[in-house]
From TrEMBL:
Any one GO MF annotation of this record: oxidoreductase activity
Origin: domain of life: Bacteria
Record Gene3D superfamilies: Leucine-rich Repeat Variant
Protein's name in the database: HEAT repeat domain-containing protein
InterPro entries given in the database record: ARM-like, ARM-type_fold, PBS_lyase_HEAT
Length: 134
């Protein structure tokens, strides 16, 4: 019974990602990340394409993808690093480092050297330094 309730709750949260109110979609993304709901990965990735002007929702979605830890999210996070708003790009860097640091190192190094935003470059450098690179 509990498993069915958990599944129903997860499905309601996934559905909430499409809610017209951004604050509700953002909260749903955050909760899905905290619950590490793998089945939410495709819907969280879809949020990045379907809600292009909602920065807070994007930040919550990319952080959720990092928390969930599904390698299938890696390409979407790399895309967010290169095309999102500054806050989204910084969050996507953190998510990539959390998801798979070995794969993320190349992206982090590239961003640390070439991103147009000083804040994004600094975030990439900080993540590299925290994880043992100079």
């Amino acid at each position: 019974m509990v498993q069915r309730e958990d599944e129903a709750y997860d499905m309601a949260l996934i559905e909430g990602l499409r809610h017209p109110r951004p604050d509700i979609a953002e909260t749903c993304a955050w909760v899905l990340g905290q619950r590490r709901t793998r089945r939410a990965v495709p819907a969280l990735i879809a949020v990045l394409h379907e809600r292009p002007n909602e920065v807070d929702v994007h930040v919550a979605a990319v952080l959720a993808l990092g928390h969930i830890g599904d390698p299938a999210a890696f390409p979407a996070l790399v895309e967010a690093v290169h095309s999102g708003a500054v806050r989204v790009r910084r969050a996507a860097l953190r998510a990539l480092a959390e998801l798979d640091l070995d794969r993320a190192r190349l992206v982090l190094r590239e961003v640390a050297e070439a991103d147009p935003s000083a804040g994004v470059r600094e975030e990439a450098r900080r993540l590299l330094q925290e994880r043992g690179e100079r």
